[in-house]
Design brief:
It comes from Heterodera trifolii. This is Phosphatidylethanolamine-binding protein. Pfam families: PBP. The chain is α+β, with helices and mostly antiparallel strands. It is built from 2 helices and 2 strands; from the N terminus they run βααβ. The chain has a two-stranded antiparallel sheet with strand order 1-2. It is elongated, with a radius of gyration of 14 Å. The relative contact order is 0.35.
Amino acid sequence: MSRRETNSYMGPAPPQGTGLHRYTFLVYAQKEGTVVNGTQKPAERANFHIREFAKEINAGSPLAGNFFNAQYDG
């Protein structure tokens, strides 16, 4: 199994005055040769639909997951 980073980690960025946000991490097995180029722009991350994305790349079900809550802190 080889590993290659295509996108760097981008931390949470909840806007001021929007309260608590839940951030979810899901891990999928990626078929060899599948290249996924995500976005680094917060505005483009809004309304991301993981089920649609997983179906597009034929990822199957997630192998693991975790989440955390965050809110704007100035």
